[in-house]
Amino acid sequence: MSPQVRVGGASPALTRRRAALAAALALATLLSVGVERSVGDHEQGVSWEPFIKRRLTLQWRFENPAWRGLEIVPLAAMSAPHRAAFAEYCQVRFGSADPVQCHAIVSARHY
Fold it and tell me: Which of 73, 60, 62, 69 is nearest to 103 (CA)?
């Protein structure tokens, strides 16, 4: 009896391992990397800034809730739900649970 010769490809077990590794890598990337939508003036337009998340989440696309048009909304002018969304954004984006500290970071990056 002659041994089987596999022509043109990897064994099914190797293919499954590669697929599992690719899926694990994709999930790890999704959990740890996000992109933030930044709106600039008419010359800059819209840009997407990749970042490493400070907290793992399945969400990958982010918009800063403090932005309104080209301006940053003062913390005191935010409604309670708006402020809660901003706090959540801050925890994922900057690792800060303090909205005041995060607003200072966002304001410094804006100007």
Answer: 73
